[in-house]
């Protein structure tokens, strides 16, 4: 049997097709109905046996992570990625070692394309990828259930990054049920030069909506997804955190308006933002019509001067996979 000394895992970003947020809970979280949709913006996480198996310095990621590096095409976003023990990929490696009693020092490299602090779960994606990569590299043999359990411990969005496709998350978002959708959708994402802290956006939500009702799945969205109807999905996109994100970064309203004005079928802030997501077509629509609409939305956003970067992607796609 060959022993792998390097494992690379590819993992997608997510956009939230519905994000319904209930009142704050005693544990500091909020109950959600969170319709996750995985899209083809990928980070790649590579774990490699560290050359010298010397323990990492204090605060360097625990004894299993010797060094953490990051690269990718994200411009200013990369400077927001912590390269110490607080990085979610490092925390994932440490958790696998703790849970299984296996593990040796590794280097972790993050090839990042998912916006950082952008509401697309990039850090969560890297955590999910590192769980899978370390499990494979160390032959730890974690079951699917054990991996999902580790994922939920690391963050509310991490289990979905393992699973991918389209799924509804309840609880704080970590309890997943798959949602079948026959349609493949095309998306445009407007990346902001700014980041938004998820916790800060939830706090702003509490301030604006102190009497939030319990969250529930929107039947219009569920029906539109079941049919794979892009116009109906576009019309049903909702995000309870959007008002809070706009309150913290008012210029996002103009970004949303620019994409809508250029013909997007639906527009919303992704998760806690500030990335704005535009559904531009898919399903049974003519590919040429979709391509034209997509080009119009991309051109309008690029010309607006409001975005750091404009990227296109499709969904849904599978969760973390070993390459
Ligand atoms: C808002 C969402 C929507 O998918 O995504 P992002 O916009 O961050 O990508 C998620 O709920 C984010 O999940 P994740 O980023 O994993 O958050 P966590 O690490 O679990 O929590 C960070 C903080 O967000 C708040 N939080 C998170 C989840 C939740 N259900 N209720 C909360 O109130 C809490 O203040 C918590 O301390
Ligand atoms: N691997 C990682 N990639 C990106 N950010 C990370 C990572 N690990 C920890 N972080 C921290 O988590 C914060 C939230 O990052 P991210 O998951 O990209 O955003 P969001 O929660 O909005 O989807 C960042 O500002 C950064 O400080």
UniProtKB/TrEMBL annotation:
Gene that specifies this protein: ispE
Biological function: Catalyzes the phosphorylation of the position 2 hydroxy group of 4-diphosphocytidyl-2C-methyl-D-erythritol.
Residue intervals of the GHMP kinase N-terminal domain: 87-164
Superkingdom assignment: Bacteria
Organism the protein comes from: Streptomonospora nanhaiensis
Gene3D superfamilies, per database record: 3.30.230.10, GHMP kinase, C-terminal domain
SUPFAM superfamilies xref list: GHMP Kinase, C-terminal domain, Ribosomal protein S5 domain 2-like
GHMP kinase C-terminal domain span: 223-282
Catalytic activity reported: 4-CDP-2-C-methyl-D-erythritol + ATP = 4-CDP-2-C-methyl-D-erythritol 2-phosphate + ADP + H(+)
Record-given protein name: 4-diphosphocytidyl-2-C-methyl-D-erythritol kinase
């Amino acid at each position: 049997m060959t022993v792998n000394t390097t494992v690379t895992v590819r993992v997608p970003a997510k956009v939230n097709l519905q994000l319904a947020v209930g009142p704050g809970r005693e544990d500091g979280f909020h109950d959600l109905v969170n319709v996750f949709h995985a899209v083809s913006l990928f980070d790649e996480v590579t774990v490699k046996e560290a050359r010298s198996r010397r323990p990492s310095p204090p605060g360097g990621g625990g004894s299993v992570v010797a060094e953490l590096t990051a690269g990718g095409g994200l411009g200013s976003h990369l400077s927001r990625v912590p390269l110490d023990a607080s990085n979610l990929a490092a925390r994932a490696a440490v958790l696998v070692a703790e849970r299984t009693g296996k593990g040796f020092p590794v280097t972790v490299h993050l090839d990042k394309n998912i916006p950082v602090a952008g509401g697309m779960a990039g850090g969560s994606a890297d955590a999910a990828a590192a769980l899978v990569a370390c499990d494979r590299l160390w032959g730890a043999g974690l079951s699917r259930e054990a991996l999902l359990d580790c994922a939920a411990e690391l963050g509310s969005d991490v289990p979905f990054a393992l699973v991918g496709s389209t799924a509804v998350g309840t609880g704080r978002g970590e309890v997943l049920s798959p949602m079948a959708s026959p349609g493949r959708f095309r998306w445009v994402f407007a990346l902001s030069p700014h980041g938004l802290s998820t916790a800060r956006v939830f706090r702003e939500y509490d301030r604006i909506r102190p009497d939030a009702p319990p969250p529930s799945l929107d039947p219009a969205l569920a029906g539109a997804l079941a049919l794979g109807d892009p116009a109906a999905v576009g019309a049903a996109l909702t995000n309870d955190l959007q008002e809070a994100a706009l309150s913290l970064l008012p210029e996002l309203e103009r970004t949303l308006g620019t994409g809508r004005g250029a013909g997007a079928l639906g527009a919303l802030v992704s998760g806690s933002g500030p990335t704005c997501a535009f559904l531009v077509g898919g399903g049974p629509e003519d590919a040429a019509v979709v391509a034209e609409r997509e080009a119009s939305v991309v051109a309008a956003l690029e010309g607006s001067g409001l975005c750091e970067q404009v990227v296109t992607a499709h969904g849904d796609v599978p969760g973390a996979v070993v390459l």
